[in-house]
């Protein structure tokens, strides 16, 4: 995660929603499905788009039939964010495509390309940032400018090597190292080198461990609020 799939999907959604009669961004499909089950999400499709109450797919009624008949006439834009299994996609996308009117668009984001191999018309793979893009994004967060100072240039290049073009990792590391001394940068780099397979979780852990106790509590409060 962290390469920007959700961010791109949100940007596309906001830029194009005015062209559609109905629209909805279904965030955290994986998490919502684990909490409530796929049937809950299926029943939310017509209710979110039509602005009606929840409709139970297991016990069809007049309300559900009315909602789906309304949907069939509407040009809709739907985003299903963070789908993590082919079964989810089958239930949420393939079985529901007939509900929407002509010209409707359904955007799906997933960490697993295999999930998207069946039931979608086109796959767009988000590329990681190249070296120059990574250095610029890191610098904006670490120095509030597009490039590091000469004093921190080599250290910055070493840091972005471990981020491997991941935008979230670059932002987190940049914010973490902002206004820190060179000695603290070296300590952080040693921690990154110590881990043979650096992932976003390890980078987040490094940043979290470097916080003061009070800041850690704030970080946890924010994390709990967002989940």
Automatic annotation (TrEMBL):
Highest taxon of the lineage: Eukaryota
InterPro entries to which the protein is assigned, alphabetical: Apaf_helical (IPR042197), Disease_R_plants (IPR044974), NB-ARC (IPR002182), P-loop_NTPase (IPR027417)
Any one Pfam family match given in the protein's UniProt record, by short name: NB-ARC
Gene3D superfamilies attached to this UniProt entry: Helical domain of apoptotic protease-activating factors, P-loop containing nucleotide triphosphate hydrolases
GO MF annotation terms: ADP binding
Biological processes, Gene Ontology terms: defense response
Residue ranges of every copy of the NB-ARC domain listed in the record: 1-146
Entry protein name: RCa1
Source organism per UniProt: Manihot esculenta
């Amino acid at each position: 995660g962290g390469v920007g799939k959700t961010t791109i999907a949100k940007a596309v959604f906001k830029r194009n929603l005015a062209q559609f009669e109905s629209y909805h961004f279904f965030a955290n499909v994986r998490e919502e499905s684990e909490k409530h089950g796929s049937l809950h999400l299926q029943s939310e499709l017509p209710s979110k788009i039509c602005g009606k109450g929840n409709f139970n797919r297991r016990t069809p009624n007049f309300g559900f039939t009315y909602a789906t008949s309304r949907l069939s006439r509407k040009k809709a834009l739907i985003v299903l964010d963070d789908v993590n299994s082919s079964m989810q996609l089958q239930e949420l996308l393939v079985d529901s495509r007939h509900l929407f009117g002509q010209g409707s668009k359904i955007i799906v984001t997933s960490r697993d390309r295999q999930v998207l191999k069946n039931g979608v018309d086109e796959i767009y793979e988000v590329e990681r940032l190249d070296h120059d893009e990574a250095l610029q994004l890191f610098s904006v967060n670490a120095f509030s400018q597009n490039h590091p100072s000469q004093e921190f240039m080599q250290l910055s290049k070493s840091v972005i090597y471990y981020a491997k073009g991941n935008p979230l990792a670059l932002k987190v590391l940049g914010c973490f190292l902002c206004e820190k001394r060179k000695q603290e940068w070296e300590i952080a780099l040693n921690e990154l080198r110590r881990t043979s397979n650096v992932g976003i979780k390890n980078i987040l852990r490094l940043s979290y461990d470097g916080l003061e106790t009070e800041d850690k509590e704030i970080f946890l409060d924010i994390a709990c609020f967002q989940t």
